[in-house]
Specification:
The complex is a heterodimer. Chain A is of the alpha/beta class. Chain A has seven helices and ten strands. By secondary structure, chain B is of the alpha+beta class. The two termini of chain B are 34 Å apart. The chains are: A alpha/beta, B alpha+beta.
């Protein structure tokens, strides 16, 4: 699903965000990326979602070479990836339902299917009763779950999460981890960037550690 | 598939309409500026059209006088008049015989008694040719004049074209002026719409960024802005039309009065059907183009971070 070979990312001014990263993640795997802030976690996620391009090296995600992906193909490439953001990135001028429906509308899904698919995603994260509410009235944990519902409503084969439990207490983070484990058991490739040790210990999955822009340890695929 | 496509466009259309009505003051201001801007050249166009229509009513003055040779007998004159009458460029022909010409001259000149002293009528017979309305253009009149001069019976053919030429030249000048003004104001409309859409794009920066992140194409993101620009352009054109109608309504009293003083039934007319379509169409097109230019430029600047 993800294959990085000697990938470098250097920002203008000479700052190295990633140095010689080699990484291979199979379809259906669940992987945690950990490391201090500034270690390169976010940059790695930005490369995978084609927000940034690698400076050097081979980076293949979902069969597409990121160095050669034409600009106009990027939207279609992103539709295969669900992303959960630390700050949720919800739209506050529309309801929970409309937020979750956005990826379906963007991809031109059949309008008759949209309500059913949105409700299925909301049910998965336990927020079916709040579909008509506005995100601002929800708690941080609930907002994060809306973000997750939006990320999976299109059933993407790859799910990325950037510090998904960054702003919520440990009981809620357990619930959110359970959601990700559930997706993993259903065959979705899940990649979570976090420095939450509790989360990592509880999940018992493959862990990759980044340190000062380099990949320093890889626990290998979980048994 | 096609049905869904139209359904999606309809959704965006109504969504955009909703957005515009949710900010009524801002929308009204934009539409008002566009409306006034479009009303200016359209109003001048209407004025020119009306003057031209009025000028068409004066086409009698574009008549051609054919003075015939003295020795042409009356029967040949009748035949000639009949021939000329059948020309497509001719509306009708009046025949003024030598006797009638003399009688009229006596009446109008005040030389009645003196003329009686002449032993024969010195005046030639006269055919007054009235060109058809479609041939009232100076160039066409000139051609007709040349054709009429070729008849053997004709001694002298006269056409007073100078004033017709001057009027047409003036109208042509005014027309060019309107075109230049319209071009300048079209750019103004582009800038107005462009600026409005630029603000709208910046206001919805977050939404655009998120939409890009979940795989929205540029075309998808552009669509609501293009609809907003086009709608505002169309509404502005509609307003311009209403302003013209209002202006003409306010002028109709004085125009009636003035026309009455000249014994005319002239009434000022608003834009014709085609011109109205052109006005509305240009409004929509300018709105679309303005938003397309603005959105294309600003969309590129908004990339997910």
């Amino acid at each position: 699903m993800i294959q990085f070979t000697h990938v470098f990312k250097r920002y203008p001014g000479g700052f190295d965000a990633l140095r010689n990263v080699n990484l291979q993640i199979q379809a259906g795997e669940m992987v945690f990326i950990t490391g201090h802030s500034g270690a390169g976690k976010s940059t790695l996620l930005k490369l995978i979602t084609a927000i940034e391009r690698p400076t050097r090296g081979d980076a293949v995600v979902n069969g597409k070479n990121l160095l050669r992906l034409p600009r106009r193909r990027i939207p279609y490439f992103r539709r295969e990836i669900g992303v959960v953001f630390q700050d949720h990135k919800l739209l506050f001028d529309r309801t929970v339902f409309d937020n979750v429906a956005l990826p379906l509308i963007v991809t031109g899904a059949d309008p008759h299917d949209i309500p059913r698919r949105v409700r299925a995603a909301l049910e998965m994260v336990g927020l079916l009763s709040k579909e008509k509410m506005y995100p601002i009235t929800l708690s941080g944990g609930e907002q994060q779950r809306v973000g997750i519902a939006r990320a999976v409503v299109n059933k993407p084969p790859l799910l990325l999460a950037d510090e998904p439990t960054g702003n919520i207490d440990s009981k809620l983070s357990d619930e959110i981890l359970d959601l990700f484990l559930d997706f993993h058991h259903h065959g979705v490739t899940v990649l979570i960037a976090t420095h939450d040790g509790h989360l990592i210990n509880r999940a018992r999955q493959r862990v990759i550690e980044l340190k000062q822009a380099e990949l320093v340890s890889d626990s290998g695929a979980a048994a | 598939m096609i049905k869904n496509y139209f359904l999606r466009h309809a959704q965006v259309f109504f969504y955009t309409l909703g957005q515009l009505t949710r900010t009524p003051v801002a929308t009204f201001l934009t539409v008002a500026v566009i409306g006034i801007t479009l009303a200016l050249p359209a109003g001048l166009y209407v004025a020119i059209e009306n003057v031209q229509r009025l000028a068409r009513g004066w086409e009698d003055n574009g008549q051609i006088s054919l003075f015939l040779k003295q020795d042409v007998p009356g029967s040949s004159i009748e035949k000639l008049a009949e021939k000329i009458r059948r020309l497509p460029a001719v509306s009708w022909v009046d025949y003024v015989s030598r006797d009638a010409a003399l009688a009229e001259f006596k009446r109008l000149s005040g030389f009645g008694e003196a003329l009686n002293a002449l032993d024969r009528n010195p005046l030639p017979a006269l055919l007054v040719v009235h060109p058809a309305a479609a041939y009232s253009h100076p160039d066409k009149l000139q051609t007709l004049l040349k054709d009429l001069r070729r008849y053997n019976e004709v001694d002298l053919a006269q056409l007073d074209l100078d004033w017709v030429r001057r009027l047409h030249a003036m109208l042509e000048l005014a027309r060019q002026g309107v075109l230049i003004l319209a071009a300048g104001l079209a750019v103004a409309v582009l800038l107005i719409v462009g600026n409005t859409i630029r603000l709208a794009v910046l206001n919805r920066r977050d939404e655009i960024e998120i939409t890009k992140l979940i795989g929205g194409t540029n075309a998808f993101i552009r669509r609501p802005f293009l609809y907003a620009g086009t709608l505002q352009g169309l509404l502005g054109a509609l307003l311009a039309w209403l302003l013209l109608a209002l202006g003409l309504l306010l002028l109709s009293g004085p125009v009636d009065n003035l026309a009455g003083l000249y014994g005319s039934r002239f009434e000022a007319e608003n834009l014709g059907f085609l011109a109205t379509l052109t006005l509305i169409g240009s409004g929509g097109l300018l709105g679309w183009l303005g938003s397309r230019l603005a959105v294309g430029r600003h969309l590129r600047a908004i990339e997910p971070r």
